[in-house]
Design brief:
This protein is of the alpha/beta class. 39% of the residues lie in helices and 22% in strands. The chain binds NADP nicotinamide-adenine-dinucleotide phosphate (NAP). NADP nicotinamide-adenine-dinucleotide phosphate binds next to helix 7 and helix 8.
Length: 492
């Protein structure tokens, strides 16, 4: 087995089939957000020369990998899936230690990465081009899908193995070579995914992992002209910068960005069912999902009752060490994030919005060395307020009361984002109207905003993406380009 460790608890980059330290020898620390005494490891603090070496390796491997049969590529992805599956217990725990979501979620996410690898192993073997009729009866006219070449994959910390896998697996399945820059809060999951693929027999240079900061690694990577495609998941702010940069140098770009996702609860909904799904959508993973529910848009006739139900459920959630089985909510990713979210809660309260429960920093019962905030619920939120408009990326839910379906839809759509949305109702007509009218890339009826399966397209409308989609067959559109071939017989 390849080992990424260059010394105890120090993890290197993976470049051209070798685990190696940053050229400078520098490292950075990764500590658990649940307990800053828990040192997860030291990781390579890379810079431009490490990025250049990784891009060179990817460029040199590109022709060989492009010419490797899709069946052979699929076999490697299948093998990596089985290797990852055999390590689920270990990686799930590591994910929880470095990201802070509960162990159940950490194990579940690792299982999802396995499923994604299997899916793209299958997808690599699907038909990839089309035959067309031609004006000439003798011409064989067809399209082929070809890889882009070297792609940069830049990922956030909140799904530290699932998101990297749903970019890396299709990129490789369709014949691209990769330079992968993971989030600096979660480099260990990136190391584990890379190890599984390396151990499965991926040739040198096909996948290169470079850890380090946005400025030292991200910047030189996206500016390298040899990188022809960039797939980025993260904040709208960084997404906006990448849009300009990619447009300037003509790189293909895919962005998956933030959300301000609504769950509409109509008066006829099953209240207990809606309650469970709204609370799970808002609070699981400490509200740090792009698809998290942050607005509960509730029919005024049931708003008070539903708010009371939400309050009882949310204030009863067990917050604490995510490795413990009884914990339902872990920490935020960083001290800065916890302070920011607690500050937003304070500011909303000061502006007159009713804080029903939660929102304060937690330092008791073993939470003193982590970045914990009590899950917060606001009522009386207005659509145009900061709570009604901005992604806080934490365990904060606001209830907006509305009069009926039309107002609910207008409020739901009154944001610059359009990632996911839910409706809770028993009325089929309203469900169909919602599916038609809601401005969101992922639509749920009677289930939470955060569910997403790997075999279907994933992505947002409006400010939540670049109108492209990840996962499922949609991933092929980003990671391939079309070649049209006119094949005529020589004159006889
Ligand atoms: P972020 O700060 O934008 O960072 C995302 C990644 O980009 C990290 O690897 C980061 O590196 C890197 N990066 C930052 N600036 C860069 C630059 N100028 N050039 C190149 N790379 C750069 O986002 P985050 O805080 O990790 O993630 C939270 C956000 O992601 C939320 O808005 C959330 O909604 C969104 N998200 C969206 C989806 C989706 O599918 N739509 C899924 C998950 C999360 P460092 O870590 O080293 O800073």
């Amino acid at each position: 087995m390849t080992t990424p460790a260059t010394k105890m608890e120090t993890y290197g980059n993976y470049i051209n089939g070798e685990w190696r330290p940053a050229a400078s020898g520098g490292t950075f620390e990764n500590r658990s957000p649940a307990n800053t005494d828990d040192l997860v490891g030291h990781f390579a603090a890379s810079a431009a020369e490490d990025v250049a070496a990784a891009v060179t390796a990817a460029a040199e491997a590109a022709d060989g990998w492009r010419r490797t049969s899709p069946i052979a590529r699929a076999n490697i992805l299948f093998k990596a899936a089985e290797i990852l599956a055999s390590r689920t217990e270990q990686i799930g725990r590591e994910l929880t230690r470095e990201e802070g979501k509960t162990l159940k979620e950490g194990l579940g996410e690792t299982g999802r990465a396995v499923q994604i690898l299997r899916y793209y192993a299958g997808e690599a073997q699907q038909p990839a081009g089309e035959n067309y009729p031609s004006a000439s009866p003798y011409t064989l006219l067809y399209t082929a899908r070809e890889p882009l070449g070297v792609v940069a994959l830049i990922t956030p910390w909140n799904f530290p193995i699932a998101i990297p896998t749903w970019k890396v697996a299709p990129a490789l399945a369709f014949g691209n070579t990769v330079v992968f820059k993971p989030a600096s809060y979660t480099p260990l999951c990136a190391v584990r995914l890379t190890e599984a693929l390396a151990d499965a027999g991926l040739p040198p240079g096909v996948l290169n992992l470079v850890t380090g900061s946005a400025g030292s690694v991200g910047d030189p990577l996206v500016q390298d002209d040899r990188v022809v495609g960039i797939s980025f998941t993260g904040s709208n702010q960084v997404g906006a910068e990448l849009r300009m940069l990619a447009a300037k140098r003509g790189a293909k770009l895919q962005l998956e960005l933030g959300g301000k996702n609504p769950a509409i609860v109509l008066a006829d909904a099953d209240m207990e069912h809606a309650l469970t799904h709204v609370v799970n959508g808002a609070m699981m993973s400490t509200g740090q999902k792009c698809t998290a529910t942050s607005r509960a848009i509730v029919d005024r006739s049931v708003a008070d009752r539903f708010t009371e139900m939400l309050s009882a459920r949310i204030s009863g959630l067990t917050v604490g060490d995510p490795l413990l089985a009884e914990t339902q909510i872990g920490p935020l990713i960083s001290e800065e994030a916890a302070e920011r979210v607690a500050g937003e809660v304070g500011a909303a309260k000061d502006s007159g919005v009713t804080l029903v429960t939660g929102g304060s920093r937690l330092r008791e019962n073993g939470t003193g060395k982590g970045h914990f905030v009590a899950p917060a619920l606001f009522s009386g939120v207005t659509s145009d307020s900061r709570l009604g408009q901005e992604e806080l990326f934490g365990p904060v839910l606001g209830v907006i009361a509305v009069d009926g379906m039309d107002e609910a839809l207008a409020v739901a759509n009154n944001v610059r984002f359009g990632l996911s949305a839910s409706l809770f109702t028993r009325d089929l007509g309203k469900a169909l109207a919602f599916a038609r009218e809601i401005q969101a890339g992922i639509v749920h009826v009677n289930s939470e905003t955060a569910g997403a399966e790997p075999q279907v397209p994933f992505g947002g409308m409006k400010g939540s993406s670049s109108y492209s989609r990840e996962q499922g067959k949609a991933a092929r559109d980003f990671f391939t380009q079309i070649k049209t071939v006119y094949l005529d017989p020589p004159p006889s």
